[in-house]
Here is the input.
Amino acid sequence: MNINSYLETVSQWLPLASLIIALIALLLSFLSSRIAKKSYALSLEQERRTQPSLELYIVDSYIRPASPPIPRIFFFQVRLTNTSDASNSVREVRLVIEYGKERGVSSTVAIPHKIDHMEYLKPNRHEPLNPPFSIAARSVLGGVAVFSLPDDLTKKSVVESYTVEVVDAFGLKAGAEAILLKELVDESVEKASLPSQK
Here is the structure.
């Protein structure tokens, strides 16, 4: 084969070789892009799983009617779940009450949890929540939250909702609204509708 024939053969194959190289480069770029996207998605998922995330569920709830000088007392048996892969802690437990006054003006008040009022829950078979407390990653913690509500706090008003709320170490809130409360009468529990009207 003379030099001219060789050069002619090479010139014929060069476009095809260039095309194959371009296709291989495109394939490698596509694969690299997919790997990068998967890595990024995995990183986001790992970050999301370590973000603070608490969920509150009300297992049961009771009201002890006011008996001066003892105010009206609310008991909530709750279950707190840490859905994050990181541990957390609760610094505050409170009862958020939304109520409406005259002329349709709504107000909100937050009542702090009072552990010393557990003595009014009889029979008492549950441990009270005692903030601040820690909750491990992917764990569940249960307890009772207690709140006292002075009669004059919502006097001449209509209570619209009761929401038990916890505040974690990062200032994030998790809560659950009470749908049904039970009334404690003579150390027995009688079902009563939630004193809430819209």
The chain has a mean pLDDT of 79. The radius of gyration is 32 Å. Residues 54-192 form a domain with the Immunoglobulin-like fold (CATH 2.60.40). Strands lie at 54-64, 72-82, 88-100, 106-112, 133-135, 140-149, 158-168, 173-177, 181-185, 188-192.
